[in-house]
Amino acid sequence: MPRSEQELKETIAKNIAEVRKKSGLTQSELAEKINYSDKSVSKWERAEGLPDLYVLSQIAEVCSAEPGDFFLNEPPKLKETVKKLSTKAKILITAIAVGLVVLVATVVYLVLGICGLDAKYLNLVYYCMVPISAIVLTVFTAIWFKRIYSGLSVTLLIWSIAFGVWKYVSINGIHYIFEVAAALQVLVVLWYVFLLVHSRDKKTKTENQDVGHN
Predict the structure, then answer these.
(1) Residue 87 · residue 30 · CB < 8 Å
(2) How far apart are CA 70 and CA 9, in angstroms?
(3) pLDDT tens across 130-174, in order?
């Protein structure tokens, strides 16, 4: 017997929630990946709306599922070739990566200290550790987390490099490095504001299209 529209909505709603949870994503994280708001995802999961086929294919791609599985009464299965990480696991992996940078810096510091290197250059090891850690954070936050965290990591990178140059480069006018850092900081802020506005415009456009379909 053919299913009614409401029954189809409820089936798709249940399956969207299922694949999202199996993928370790919150509603906000899924929404950001498909350029919709978390309110839209919440609406779909409550069976109060029905995403179009293109959006379903996007969700399937993000969650490593098959688009056709959303229409089945049985729970969808994620592709076994891809293992999804929870947010906690992502945070832990990022922390471990940064911890490894600190560990390597500590080992190098101890080895050079045993070799009798001047204290000024020993401290340089730890000054270098901060921008390297910032680079690691920037990479992981860009892959897994919201843009604001990536922006904060880039900020740490800019100012840690500026401070290191000011501390260890002895030339006249080296303090102007902070003005360069400030200019770079403004560019970073403007770039992330542009990305935010662009993302919101795209969400508004796609949500208006979604309203039209429903």
Answers:
(1) no
(2) 10
(3) 899 999 999 998 888 877 888 889 999 999 999 888 887 778 888
DSSP secondary structure string, 65-98?
--GGGGGSSSPP---TT-----HHHHHHHHHHHH
* Nearest one of 23, 42, 131, 141 to 93, comparing CA atoms: 141
Question: What 3-state DSSP class applies to 37?
Answer: coil
Two tokens, residue 36 = 């919709």
- Could you identify the residue written with the tokens 């901060």? 130
DSSP 4: P
pLDDT confidence tier of residue 1, bands split at 50, 70 and 90: very low
Quote the pTM value: 0.58
Comparing CA positions, the residue from 7, 29, 26 lying closest to residue 17 is 26
Identify the helix (H) or strand (E) that includes residue 36: none
Cβ atoms 165, 157 nearer than 8 A: no
Distance separating alpha carbons of residues 25 and 28, to the nearest angstrom: 8
Average pLDDT of the segment spanning 35-49: 85
The backbone torsions φ and ψ at residue 118, rounded to the nearest 5 degrees and listed phi first, read: -55, 140
Residues 6+ apart with CB under 8 A from 163: 127
